Amino acid sequence: MLTVDFRKLRLKPGDRVLDAGCGMGRHVCEAFRTEGVDVVGVDLNWEDLCKTATTLYLMHAQDGGDLRRCLISRADVTDLPFRDGAFNVVICSEVLEHIPDNHKAVRELIRVLKPGGDLVVSVPRFLPERICWALSEAYHHEPGGHIRIYRRRELRALLEGAGATCREVGYKHGLHAPYWWLKCLVGHKNEQSRPVRLYKRFLEWDIIKRPQLTRTLDRILNPFIAKSIVFYLKKDIIRHEAGYTDSGR
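The structure assignment produced for this chain is given below.
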């Protein structure tokens, strides 16, 4: 299930892509499909990193692709172990809502991105997430879970204040918001609920088959109840080539 639209990034051989907070690697693996692109995925969850590495190996075994162009590593988004301007593209999908010091995380995302490079950030959208919080205290207080809900203008101001310019905002996964509301109603970890299991099977079928009917329905729902909001930005060239930092140096 991709949240980022890679068609908007126009990856080309020689590009370096970082997925900061890569989880189980959905965006890392999609970037790996572009021949000649160097891909780095970092996360703090060791089990998720192992799953990402396994998926990349299986993709290599089936379709080819140079595994030497991939790096999967444990790292903190608020303290990335990369030099300034190391990447052409930085992706941070469904991560910032988990991080206490989100300002520091955003500064790091901008720091490791080349001036003029693409930054893509997605978070849960305000209304669908607020409904989840209202329906379930357990969902709200899940250890390691979501500690904040962003309003669109709030996150845009945070990202642009750190040195990026927003060029487009998109919405994704309109069909998925009702699934999470249903989970919150019956217990967000209750996988045995029949309605939850049936809806999950429907979503999995939709992701694999992508029938025209559900694709159309998803596009209709996205402006209203999309689960995620996605910001596509460019790192400012003038500010950063002039030696701009948050400290003013």
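Interim note for the steering committee: The first strand starts at residue 16 and ends at 20. The domain at 76-241 is CATH 3.40.50.150 (Rossmann fold).
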